[in-house]
Amino acid sequence: MIKVIHNQVKGRARYKVKELYRSESLKQYLERSLSEQPGINYVSANPLTSNILIFFDYEYSTEKIATLIEKNVLEYQNSDIKLPVKNLPATKKALTKETPKPIANAQAQRIENWHLMETDAVLDSFNTSKQSGLSSESAAENLNKYGPNVLATAKTRSDLSILIDQFKSLPVALLGIAAGVSVVTGGLIDALVILGVVGLNAAIGYTTESQSERIIHSLGSHQETSTWVIRNGKQIEIPIEDVVIGDILVLKTGGYIAADARLLEAENLSIDESALTGESIPVTKSTSSLTGEDIPLADRTNMVYKGTLVTGGQGLAVVVATAKFTEMGKIQQLVGEATATETPLARQLDQVGSQLVAIGMGICGLVFGIGVLRGYGLLQMLQSSISLAVAAVPEGLPTIATTTLALGIQDMRKRNVLVRSLGAVEALGSVQTICLDKTGTITENRMSVVEVRVDSRQINVLDGEFIANDENINPYACDELLKLIHVSVLCNESQVNQEQDGKYSIKGSATENALIHMAISAGVDVNQLRDKYQLLQTNLRSENRNIMSTVHAIDNNHKFVAVKGSPAEVVQICKFWLKDGEVIPLTEEDRRAIEIENDRMAGKALRVLGIAYTILDENNNRQNPEQDLTWLGLVGMADPVRKGVKELIAQFHEAGIDTVMITGDQSPTAYAIAKELELSRDPQLEILDSTDLNNLTPEALTALADKVDVFARISPSNKLQIVQALQAAGQVVAMTGDGINDAPALKAAQVGVAMGKGGTDVAREVADIVLEDDRLETMIVAVSRGRTIYNNIRKSVHFLLATNLSEIIVMTTATAVGIGEPLNAIQLLWLNLVTDIFPGLSLALEAPEPDVLSKPPRNPDEPIIKSSDFGRIAFEAGTISVSTLAAYGYGILKYGISPQASTIAFMSLTSAQLLHTLSCRSENHSIFSQEKLPNNSYLNAAIVGSFAIQLLAIAIPPLRSLLKITPIDIVDSAVIGGSALLPLLVNESTKNLPSANDDKK
């Protein structure tokens, strides 16, 4: 029942267990039960090949191990255990406990170039051995000395911190001071109104940001909590936090690496390091020591790193670093050191706020001084001065900015774009350079067959279709192609299971999974094919032999040999090739042609495999089946570019945004993808390798950064350097990424964009924006939304400054001339509430301009209100003020300095400001223009609603009493209407309309 298939190495044997075939539960049962046997150090079972590999102490014989396997198989068959993975050992119970925190006073770990040292020297450094590992005592001592193998968790924004952030702006601070002074001077109602505005602003911002934060946290992945190590000569499972330096890690396919470690054994071991290095293709590992200086992380083939994934093979490794001393820990420290950059809008709104604070203080002092000189009471002038200072600060400014950005966040959420902070939406609209991480962002981080070469014919594979010369090819109508696909399935260790919904679950290396996906898209029933050709023998590739072959039973008299591997090696052992459906001799000229094609495909940054086969009859009992093969063709694989990315790059360029690709891949791979995407707006593509980057001074890098299109072989610290260099060159930078290695740069960029599905928790925690479905093309929508939001906020700020300045002019002029106060303190607050918030907000909801993505990004240093705007704002405020003062003068002539005159001034100024929203919709279009602006239903509702509220203030006695206003007659109403309409007509008729020539353009 149990057959020994390899036992040439003492202490190690591979067995064939027939019952293991396609039984995942038996695999788990054997690995767990045999590992508990004393003297057995390592167990790895493969349900696809029916093989089980065991490392054991020398006192065991291969026959005794075979007996143990047979005994455990019988126990499994006679028991009710079908999913033994649920019967966790005692060590598993510890995994439910709370994850420990790093020890603050843990000792520093020894840092060496472990990749340059021999394995024996590394083992001696930690007083451990490959066979027995650490003793329990040594492990406990190291754990106490260096602390648990955990990283400090990223600080998340608490509900309290999100709420506090809503109050961190100068306009809000000034409003708070004004409310405090109002309370001291007896203006309790004034204070309540001011605080109501501040509270509304905070509530809107808090609700929106906290909701996004909760959704982003819900995307967190649940990584493994345990790993296998050798201790006291036995293979045991322990919590990852208990791993210490000197432990011997047992590496198995599908498992994550628990700590940084130096390899001791590697059997066909491949590791996906894309999250750490950005290298899209899994790295083949070996145990040989390396030579040289400054070897990049991605080239240290004898090392494995915490957080990376074993995609194939197995091995043993000695832990050399844990916790914050691992490469992942170093990246986390970089994240902590990187500082988030303030967004342009936040900076400019604070700038406007600072200016308004200065203006408010100046006006307060001026009016107070004039009033005192004219003999008004000190308390009365103090209240009036404070009211004017409040009038100088638009209460609606924080609320409008917050609400507009919040609505932008909600709109993005409908498109599966999660925005963590309000400023990130606007900042994306002002981005000048987007740094695109290649692996997992531009590409799918999944190997896929993109090209096949059979019978001297090039066949492109796109979205599951086989295309040659613009014609679709049915694999079942092409013998050479179908045979190549069949061999790719048979010479393949990936495990394939079909779910109830018809979808396939594939486990294996990235390369072999790509071959399976190709077969499934061709309509091949993978499991049926494997059942038809029963696997008899597997010959895996080794360090000096880049070929894999499998032997399958056809019938009692024939065997089928499937071979794949390095094209250069496979073609040398081929004697024939399949051409036009016939097997013909392979000449030297044919071999050279194949080598040329292989070089051509490799030049396109493809991973290329050669595929061949042979059939053995019963008379052919040769030991090496890899002889006299028939060549089938070449298969080229790559990490495919995501759908729509090329079109997205073109859209970014049209919007005036530069695109830069940052990758851990080799320069040829990066160049090929950048060329395919047309990444540069210039014909010449500029590429910079990390070896050149490391020799540059910060000043030189800053000078070069905005001229380079592709950065290749980049480390996490390099990414941070690049982002900071672009920022130093005056660029507003967005960074996209999904890996741990992207986190420092994501945090430093003005806008960090992480992937939701494929991204790591670390990347999501520091990003400003998370693409929930990983669709990069939604970014252009966010750019459009960001630009529109900025333009609309600019319109709102223009409106608020013009209307609030009109209040200041009216009040200051009346006080200086000595004609009383046209508006009292509560009327000023009411006026700002009615005219600032809803009309101002409706301006922020204007539709996007048609050419919003055809214009270059705005200069981030350009103020939200340019110097040229202030003249126009002053003119508009002046027309409103003159008209209001004229109406107030009419009231004084008719009623004297009295509440009736104040009522006329109050109603005139309110009405004029409400109508002024129509004038602020556009800098160029007016109500007299032939080309009309799109209808804004929010604006119409805001104006009608605000007028209705104003009429209620006169109609309802308690409100009249609060505001100290009186009823008005028809003549007064006509004067108020005329004084409100006149400024609108003057301002609209004096707009700088576009010239006829501009219209023709």
Approximate shape: elongated
Note the beta-strand portion: 15-25%
Main structural class: alpha+beta
Number of strands: 32
End-to-end separation in angstroms reads 85 Å
Q: Extract low-pLDDT stretches.
A: 81-99, 993-1001
Helix amount = 40-55%
Q: Give the biggest beta sheet.
A: 11 strands, mixed
- Estimate the mean pLDDT confidence: 82
Q: How many helices in DSSP terms? A: 35
What is the C-alpha radius of gyration, as a whole number of Å? 37 Å
Task: Please give the structural blueprint.
Layout: E1 2-6, E2 12-17, H1 24-35, E3 40-46, E4 51-56, H2 62-78, H3 90-93, H4 119-125, H5 136-146, H6 159-165, H7 170-184, H8 188-218, E5 226-231, E6 234-239, E7 248-251, E8 260-272, H9 274-277, E9 283-284, E10 303-304, E11 309-321, H10 327-337, H11 344-373, H12 378-392, H13 396-414, E12 417-419, H14 422-429, E13 433-437, H15 438-442, E14 448-454, E15 457-462, E16 465-468, E17 471-472, H16 479-490, E18 495-498, E19 504-507, H17 510-521, H18 526-532, E20 534-539, E21 547-553, E22 558-565, H19 567-572, E23 574-579, E24 582-585, H20 588-603, E25 607-617, E26 629-638, H21 645-654, E27 658-662, H22 667-677, E28 687-689, H23 690-693, H24 698-705, E29 710-712, H25 716-728, E30 733-737, H26 743-748, E31 751-755, H27 761-766, E32 769-771, H28 778-817, H29 825-843, H30 867-895, H31 899-919, H32 937-955, H33 957-963, H34 970-989, H35 996-1000
Parallel strand pairs: 13-27, 13-30, 23-26, 27-29, 28-29, 30-31, 31-32
Antiparallel strand pairs: 1-2, 2-4, 3-4, 5-6, 5-7, 7-11, 8-9, 8-10, 8-11, 12-32, 14-15, 14-26, 15-16, 16-17, 18-19, 20-21, 21-22, 22-25, 23-24, 25-26
Helix pairs in contact: 1-2, 7-8, 7-12, 8-13, 8-29, 11-12, 11-28, 12-29, 13-14, 13-28, 13-29, 14-28, 16-17, 24-25, 28-29, 28-30, 28-31, 29-31, 29-32, 30-31, 30-34, 31-32, 31-34, 32-33
